[in-house]
Design a protein that fits this description.
With 782 residues, the chain is α/β, with parallel strands linked by helices. It has three domains: 4-300, P-loop containing nucleotide triphosphate hydrolases (Rossmann fold, 3-Layer(aba) Sandwich); 307-444 and 564-590, P-loop containing nucleotide triphosphate hydrolases (Rossmann fold, 3-Layer(aba) Sandwich); 595-780, Rossmann fold. The protein has an eight-stranded parallel sheet with strand order 1-10-4-9-8-5-7-6, sandwiched between helices. A six-stranded parallel sheet has the order 11-16-15-12-14-13, sandwiched between helices. Strands 19-20-24-23-21-22 form a six-stranded mixed sheet. Helix 3 (110-120) runs parallel beside helix 4 (136-149) and helix 25 (722-729) packs parallel to helix 26. 49% of the residues are buried. Residues 9-85 have low confidence and may be disordered.
Length: 782
């Protein structure tokens, strides 16, 4: 039997949207459409000051949540003392909670009430697919309070991001809900939180999906929660499905969690970004377990009336950056500028900062404390924009975010809808601008190349694990040719499939049979390719852009009679010109044309090299000095030129590249100037690399030592991880003739990725008598 599906087109007239943190306590609109954070008389209402709002409006965050705290925490036990437990009075209780939460004029819409009733009365498993700002968090916080008041256990919320957890814990605590979180950022608090859960002192426990397979949590805490929880909530539930745009292997463990739940424990899964295929997959996973019944699916319209969508065609990266530098201050309020790569985020942030704009880079490589501070800066309007990768997405809640700009398109329209959904949640208007680039598809291809590995590689992971002796991920790396991130992904998938198990000390094999679902992986690859084509179609379409995105999400609110949004550039005409001021463009090009990126040396040999027959361990004492790269392939400035150079036929190095290399050498703060230069033999670019080394020798009056040649029959090294790459490079080169010149030697290469080729080549030169080796490469991927 399939899921029961209920659709709702939108809010009840005059009703309250219970706007989300994803819902609680956001600055919202009066009945006349204007926003407010303070009282009509201009004074700000703090948490202790009563405040009566106009009917049908929201109240500021502090008033709403303080009111709920006063209403629900009046009894010593923390339960809602005066709340009726009769089923017939349940809606009155829920309405009262919402009024305390969001103001006297607020009332539940029918679709919100349907979800609450399904959870609290009928103890159903429900999937809610509703637009950002619909009020998903309000539904599960109200349900949690109703269930807790009736003597049920704590609500467990599985939430994917620290930013989202922080927002939800703060909102819950302000609402009088005793909330705690277990995540990678509060390890020292885990034991105390476990005790509080056992003592019944926690109403809502937020956990990251990774915690579900932490051995201590899985074995000591999870069984009691699965038995006694009042409600289980899966936030951002599209992550459960590998058909989803943001699939996360850790989320697959939720299937096991819901299957093990005690009888009658309701489950709520929520998302704003799921098409029909993802909805069906998630609903099926929620329905696992004997006698669970079908999953109730509640879907609503996904139009976002505040968003004004535009696409600008500006092919040259420097011109795109100059356009943003020129127009950033014209965009309303503060916002987010998305880039596809970490290096582009840092380059763009540095450029805009030099142009006087208050911006900062935010990426997955940013320190957690730094990310939290950057989020606070954007929330407090202390920056005009964060220049971010997709690391800033789900969970970030700034209701008055005024704009989202993409310099480079995401690979999926659904991903794009999710990211632009950060904007305009409590504003009448937000600008959403996509500025795609011709290099986008190449970047998408790179990300696609790190998908699930081949069957033989996966089976090798199972083979090297033992049933009794746990092995850490680090210890497995010399045994399996996978990068750390891909190895971790494989282990997580195999764990969910039952072939391996995480225990204290690492991973073990279970001996359970396992099948490689090649057909499914092929279909997933086809689906990703289709999403990419759909994103390109979004860029090209002459129809309504919002209708296009809603169609990609299988929005049930769309019909054959649905008109265009009346807001996007295709509906209303272009609002933004692609023209760029020549002076501004000149300034940007001067900044982006500066060559030179630091190349830090490898400092430590990987653990376990002896397993591959290589006697290298500990600190690297015979490696290169710090080096330089002319530019990254993902750079806004040199990236396009280097990609064109490396994608074209092998040829002598162009004069402009030689001059850039000279500029890099001139700015190099080395302790000892090189006295000789040597080219590292290239199988694909011998003319390019050799001619560059020769030209630098001539210009710098260095001795040209020729080429460091590979031994005859030496195969190309294509290994994915460090250990296997090093093993393939041991004794890879012939012993060089340094002509009595110990250097320092400038070692020239075309592209450096992991740094291990230059490390091992430098080791060869040092063992041949070189005093020091200074690496110089034309490009690095990132």
């Amino acid at each position: 039997m399939g899921p029961t599906i209920v659709t709702a087109a939108g809010p009840t007239p005059g009703g309250c949207d219970a706007d989300d943190p994803d819902s609680i306590g956001v600055p919202c609109r009066r009945g006349d459409g204007t926003r407010f954070r303070d009282r009509p008389d201009g004074s700000f209402a703090d948490e202790t000051t009563p405040f009566v709002a106009e009917p049908g409006t929201f109240v500021p965050e502090s008033d709403a949540t303080a009111g709920l705290a006063r209403a629900t925490m009046s009894s010593p036990s923390g339960t809602m003392g005066s709340m009726s437990t009769a089923t017939t009075d349940l809606r009155d209780d829920a309405e009262r909670l919402l009024r305390d939460l969001a103001g006297p004029g607020a009332r539940l819409r029918e679709d919100q009430w349907n979800a609450i009733e399904a959870l609290v009365v009928h103890r159903r498993r429900a999937l809610v697919v509703q637009r950002t700002g619909w009020g998903k968090s309000a539904v599960y916080f109200i349900s949690a309070k109703l269930l807790r008041a009736r003597g049920h256990g704590p609500t467990v919320i599985v939430s994917p991001l620290l930013a989202l957890m922080r927002n939800q814990v703060e909102a819950a605590q302000r609402a009088g809900v005793r909330a705690a979180t277990i995540n990678s950022g509060n390890v020292t608090e885990w034991e105390e939180i476990h005790r509080q859960v056992a003592d019944g002192a926690v109403d809502v426990l937020l956990v990251s999906p990774e915690r579900l397979n932490n051995p201590d949590f899985r074995d000591q805490v999870l069984p009691s929660l699965a038995r006694d929880a009042g409600l289980v909530v899966v936030d951002e539930a599209h992550c459960v499905s590998d058909w989803g745009h943001d699939f996360r292997p850790d989320y697959r463990r939720i299937r096991t969690l819901v299957a093990d739940l005690g009888e009658g424990i309701p489950v709520l899964a929520t998302t704003a970004t799921a098409n029909d295929r993802v909805v069906a997959d998630v609903a099926a996973q929620l329905g696992v377990g004997e006698g669970r019944g079908e999953t109730l699916v509640l879907r609503g319209g996904l139009d976002r009336p505040s968003l004004h969508l535009s696409v600008l065609r500006i092919d040259e990266p420097a011109r795109r950056a100059a356009w943003l530098a020129q127009h950033l201050d014209e965009l309303p309020g503060s916002g987010i500028v998305y880039t596809l790569t970490v290096s582009a985020a840092h380059d763009l942030a540095a450029l805009l900062s030099e142009h006087g704009h208050a911006v900062a880079a935010y990426t997955g490589q940013s320190d957690p404390a730094e990310r939290e501070q950057l989020e606070a800066d954007l929330l407090g309007d202390r920056v005009k924009a964060l220049i971010a990768t997709s690391a800033l997405g789900m969970g970030f809640d700034k209701p008055d975010l005024g704009f989202v700009v993409h310099l480079g398109a995401p690979s999926s329209p659904i991903s794009y809808y999710q990211q632009v959904g950060r904007a305009g949640r409590a504003t009448e208007r937000a600008e959403v601008i996509l500025v795609p680039g011709p290099e986008d598809r190449q970047i998408w291809s790179w990300f696609a190349s790190v998908a699930f590995p081949r069957e033989d590689v996966v089976r090798r992971v199972i083979e090297v694990l033992e049933p009794e002796r746990p092995q850490s991920t680090q210890a497995l790396e010399p045994l399996v040719d996978l990068t750390r991130s891909r190895l971790e992904m494989v282990l997580k998938v195999l764990d969910v499939d039952g072939a391996v198990r995480r225990v204290k000390g690492g991973w073990i094999a279970t001996g359970a049979p396992w099948e490689y679902d090649a057909d499914r992986y092929a279909k997933l690859e086809q689906a990703r390719a289709a999403e990419q084509e759909a994103m390109l179609e979004y860029e090209r379409t002459t129809g309504c852009r919002m209708v296009f995105l809603r169609t990609q999400l299988d929005d049930p609110g769309l019909t054959s009679e649905t008109a265009g949004c009346g807001r996007c550039d295709n509906c209303c005409g272009a609002r933004w010109s692609a023209d760029v001021d020549d002076t501004e463009l000149g300034r940007v090009r001067a900044r982006l044309d500066r060559p030179g990126v630091d190349l830090p040396p490898r400092r430590q040999w990987p653990t376990g090299m002896a397993k591959l027959g290589v006697a290298l361990s500990g600190k690297i004492t015979d490696g290169p000095e710090p080096g330089r790269v002319l530019g990254r392939l993902s750079d806004l400035g040199w990236g396009p030129r280097l990609r064109a150079l490396l994608d074209g036929p092998d040829a002598p190095v162009p004069d402009a590249v030689v001059q850039a290399a000279v500029d890099v050498l001139r700015a190099w703060d080395w302790s000892h100037r090189p006295t000789a230069v040597m080219a590292l033999e290239s199988a694909t670019r011998p003319l390019l690399v050799g001619s560059l080394a020769t030209r630098l020798a001539q210009l710098g009056r260095l001795e040209d030592l020729g080429v460091l040649r590979a031994r005859p029959g030496q195969p190309s090294v294509t290994a994915a991880n460090s250990a296997y790459r090093i093993a393939g490079l041991v004794d890879a080169w012939e012993s060089p003739d340094l002509h009595g010149n110990p250097g320092p030697i400038l070692l020239v290469d075309a592209v450096t990725d992991t740094g291990w080729t230059l490390t091992m080549a430098a080791r060869t030169l040092i063992h041949a008598g070189a005093s020091a080796v200074l690496p110089l490469a034309l490009a690095s991927p990132k």
